[in-house]
Structure formats: C-alpha cells, structure tokens
Design brief:
The protein has about 425 residues and is mostly helical. The chain has one domain: Amino acid/polyamine transporter I (Up-down Bundle), CATH 1.20.1740.10. About 75% of the residues lie in helices and about 0% in strands.
Length: about 425
C-alpha cells in the first residue's frame, strides 16, 4: 500500500460515507417520534454535537493508528481475536446490506423519473445492478480513479443539498388543521430522546470508516484527524440547515406525514419538476455513498487477511493502481446477494442500528486502551478531554438499548450474525491448530 490520498480526498470520502439516503428519509421518522418542532430541531442539533464527539474520538484513533483497515485493527489490538473477527464479520455483512438497501432506494427514485407511468420491478433491478457494476468497474480501474469519482460525486452532493437548504427562504405554508401530530411518549423524556436519536445517528454515521485509509493517506497522523473533522463540520452544517428548511418550507405537520420528505420540499421549491429533480439528487447521493463503500470495505478484508483471519488472497493488491480486485469483487457479490433478500427500509434500519451502535461504542472505547498502552504517543491530534468519548459511548449504548426495546426480534437476528462470526472464527482456529 502506498499513500495516494490527500486531505481533500479523505474529507470527501467522509462526506459521502455520511450523506447517503438517510437525510432524505429519516427526518419524517424523527418528527414522528419527537412530536413537536422544538424537540425535532433540538434532536438534530444534539445529534450533531454528539456525532462531533464521535468524530473527535475517531480523529485521535486514526491519528494514533494509521493502518490499512484500522477499524478491524483496533479491535484486533485491543480485544480478543474472536471478538475482532466476529465484530468485523458482522460489520461487513451490515455494510453490504446497507449498500443494497441504499441502492434500492436510489433506484426507486430514479425509476420514477424514467418511467413516471408506473415503476416496474424489472427497471429498478436494472438500475441497481447497472449502478453497482459501474461503480465496481470504476474502483477496479484504480484507487485514484475511485477517489476522483468520489470527489466529483461529493462536491455535487454538497451543492445539491445546499440547494434544498434554500427552503428556509420560502414563505411558511398555512397549516391545514387536518393533520394529527403525535405527542411525545408521556413524560419519559429519556426514552423519547434515544428513540429519536436512532434514525438521526443512522443519518450522521459513516465518518468513522475514514480511519480504514490510514496507509493510503499522505502523512496520515496529521491528515486523518483534519479530514475527519472537516467532513463532519460540513455534514453538521448541511443537516441542521436542511432540517430547518424542511420545517419552514413544509410545516411540521407535513414533515411528520411525508416519508419522501425531500420530494415534497423539491416540489415546493421547483413546482412540478421538483420531484424529478429531487429523484436525480437522491440518486447521485446514493451513488457517492455506494462508491465510498466499495473503497473502504476491501480495506477491512485486507486487515483481516493480514492477521490470518481471512485467506491471503484478500490481501492481493495491484501495486500500481492500488486495487484489491479479489476483495472488491467479493464485496460486490455480497451487495448483490443482499439486494435480493432485503426487507423494508424501517426494518433494516433497526437491524443496522443495533449492530452499528454497539460496534461503534466498542470501537470508540479503544481510545482508552490505545492511550494506556502508549500507542502513537506524540500523535499530532488528541481529544481535548476524555469526557468527549465517554459522552459519545454512553449515548450509543443508550440507543442500543432503545433498539432492543423497540424491536427485540431483529436485535436477536443481529446477535445471531455475531454468533455466526464467532463460530467461523472457532472453526478456522481449530483447523489451523490441527494442521
């Protein structure tokens, strides 16, 4: 692995790993759970601040441990090998499932433009497979080609989200008086807070995956924290402004009852062509997110193979174009498999968030172990106070409990994926010992 990525490259990767489809879908879910415009907006601001705590935490981790597939490596270094394998096995399966679901949503939006008379299942499948294949091919060409495509998609995405933020300049709509707005869940403010945080953190998540490019990045000790923090500042400003735009331009009642809230805002901004414009925007956002998953997931497999947890073929890298063709192809296949076995967006969200919040909390906890063992002493970046990762970790664990309470069945399914990973690790370890 040679360093080919610069601060701008990693920052744009961070932006696209965060801004996928969540911000165009989850605000209606948050509004429904919040029950009032004040709590709705406050939840997004609090979510931004806590996510920034996470960004600060992973900025230090990335600075202390700049390696390929650092999200696996920190588990391997700080915890037992079985935990490292099981957690990253679950993470890769979750990433493939998330990618497939996001691709499906993007295809549904684009299909509504290509075939406004009635979206056909076959057309959606063609769009999904074609999009994934094009992005896979771009990344097979080389990391520079993948990063260039990522930069273009990220800049376009930022500009388009800024366009939607223009809703704050529209006149507020008159309330119809016919829409019932749910009230907060009694006086249990803590339960309400964590329930609202689940879809918010889904929308804010992804920046932590930037640490997987430690060895791909020029002067990673300095570049990695700088890029992570830049990307999260961009995302925070865009998200909070966009949610203010949703509320101002549509009215809170319509936010609650508009699952395709971005389409409603697009129609308000541009009239009859607004929905089609929004569909194209969301598809481009989806493409940027998917491209970032093709870039970082092979790095996780590389790290696992480097420690003998996967066959050595997962480490094979073309030294000139810096592409792990085998690992990239495996992930491409996993996404296609997941595409044909999907549930609804809401169901997948609960499965993903159980895994994501728990794994993220354990990953953030590595900062204490890395500090205690003196890893990367003298690193350029350090979190100003250890209270910051503690706040982040406690919030994540609270959300994990909220997901379990709301959907215990899918939480058990997620635990089952962990268990399968442990079994695979045990079988592999046993076979190695016997040979």
């Amino acid at each position: 692995m040679k360093a080919q990525l610069k601060t701008f490259d990693v920052a744009m990767l961070g932006v696209s790993m965060v801004i996928g489809v969540g911000i165009f879908r989850t605000p209606a879910m948050v509004a429904s759970k919040a029950g009032s415009v004040e709590l709705f907006l406050a939840a997004w601001v609090v979510g931004a601040l806590i996510s920034y705590c996470g960004a600060l935490t992973f900025a230090e981790i990335g600075s202390r441990y700049p390696v390929v597939g650092a999200f696996y490596k920190i588990f391997s270094y700080c915890y037992h090998p079985s935990a490292a394998f099981s957690l990253n096995w679950s993470l890769i399966i979750m990433n493939a499932s998330s990618s497939a679901t996001v691709a499906l949503i993007g295809a549904e939006y684009l299909a509504s433009v290509l075939d406004p008379t009635g979206v056909q299942k076959e057309l959606i499948q063609i769009i999904v497979v074609s999009t994934l294949t094009i992005l896979y091919t771009a990344n097979v060409i080389g990391i520079r080609a993948g990063a260039t495509l990522q930069n273009v998609l990220s800049v376009v995405k930022i500009v388009l989200v800024l366009f939607f933020c223009a809703g704050i300049f529209l006149s507020a709509p008159e309330s119809s008086g016919n829409v019932a707005v749910p009230q907060p869940m009694g006086s249990n403010t803590v339960a309400l807070f964590f329930a609202a945080m689940v879809p918010i953190f889904f929308s804010y998540g992804g920046y932590q995956n930037a640490i997987n490019f430690g060895r791909d990045t020029h002067n990673a000790v300095k570049t990695m924290p700088r890029a992570i923090l830049i990307s999260m500042v961009i995302v925070m400003v865009l998200y909070v402004t966009l949610n203010v735009s949703y509320v101002h331009a549509l009215g809170f009642e319509n936010c609650v009852n508009s699952p395709l809230i971005a389409s409603a805002l697009g129609e308000r901004l541009l009239g009859s062509i607004g929905r089609n414009f929004t569909a194209v925007v969301i598809f481009l956002s989806v493409a940027g997110f998917l491209n970032s998953t093709f870039m970082f997931n092979p790095r996780l497999m590389y790290a696992m193979a480097e420690e003998g947890m996967l066959p050595s073929m997962f480490m094979r890298t073309n030294s000139k174009i810096q592409v792990q063709t085998f690992s990239l192809t495996v992930f491409f296949a996993l996404v296609l498999i997941a595409f044909y076995s999907l549930g609804s967006f809401d169901q997948l969200l609960r499965y993903v968030m159980f895994n994501d919040t728990l794994i993220l909390a354990l990953a953030a906890s590595c900062i204490f172990i890395l500090r205690k063992r003196g890893v990367g002493e003298g690193a350029v970046y350090s979190v100003p106070s250890l209270v910051i990762p503690i706040i982040f970790i406690c919030t994540l664990l609270g959300m994990t409990m909220s997901v379990v309470s709301e959907d215990p069945i899918r939480s058990l399914a997620a635990i089952g994926v962990f268990a399968v990973g442990f079994v695979l690790w045990w079988v592999r370890t046993t076979l190695v010992k016997n040979t």
